[in-house]
Amino acid sequence: MPFERFVETGRVAYVSNGPYQGKLVSIVDVIDQNRVLVDGPASKIPRGQMRLSDLHLTKFRLKFPFTGSTRVVRKAWEEGKIDEEWAKTMWAKKVEAKKKRLELSDFDRFKLRRAKRVRNVLRTNAFFKLKKSTKKDKVAKTTKATKPAKKAATKK
């Protein structure tokens, strides 16, 4: 099956646009092909409708009855440990890193640029040192392989 994330009751979604941007909600019901009823008790988002174009579906899905109340959604959210599972994903880590980058001051960006420059110099030097040592090893192996052949030829 090419698709793994479906718009369905219990699907956890990331809000990408609007006043609740950056928070997680759970789909409670499908209103029509463009809108869904969502509830986010853990992220303090009241039950309401959202456009599907404002949501990104995640791989997480909660098990609760069709159009479950906020209390039911909260209980399923806590049992599923969605906040902990979300924090482990690369998606959440990238969002957090992006937020940190946006909060950097001018001086912090300068320090980061200098640190990257130093890191790159160290990395380049280590790479060329390894490259040089492997080149020496190859030369040594080829000379060892050719020396016995020359000795055998001179003995005859």
Structure characterization notes:
- With 156 residues, this protein is of the alpha+beta class.
- The protein folds into 2 domains: 93 residues, SH3 type barrels; 35 residues.
- The protein is built from 4 helices and 5 strands; from the N terminus they run βββββαααα.
- It has a 5-stranded antiparallel β-sheet with strand order 4-3-2-1-5.
- The longest helix has 50 residues.
- The protein is elongated and about 80 Å long.
- The radius of gyration is 29 Å
In helices, the fraction of residues equals: 40-55%
The portion of residues forming beta strands comes to 15-25%
The end-to-end span amounts to 71 Å
* CATH 2nd-level architecture of the largest domain: Roll
Structural class: alpha+beta
Mean residue pLDDT: 90
Low-confidence stretches: none
Shape: elongated
Structural topology:
Blueprint: E1 11-15, E2 24-30, E3 35-40, E4 45-51, E5 55-61, H1 70-80, H2 82-88, H3 90-102, H4 106-155
Antiparallel strand pairs: 1-2, 1-5, 2-3, 3-4
Descriptive keywords:
156 residues; alpha+beta; SH3 type barrels; 2 domains; 5-stranded antiparallel sheet; 4 helices; 21% strand
Q: What is the gist of this entry?
A:
With 156 residues, this protein is of the alpha+beta class.
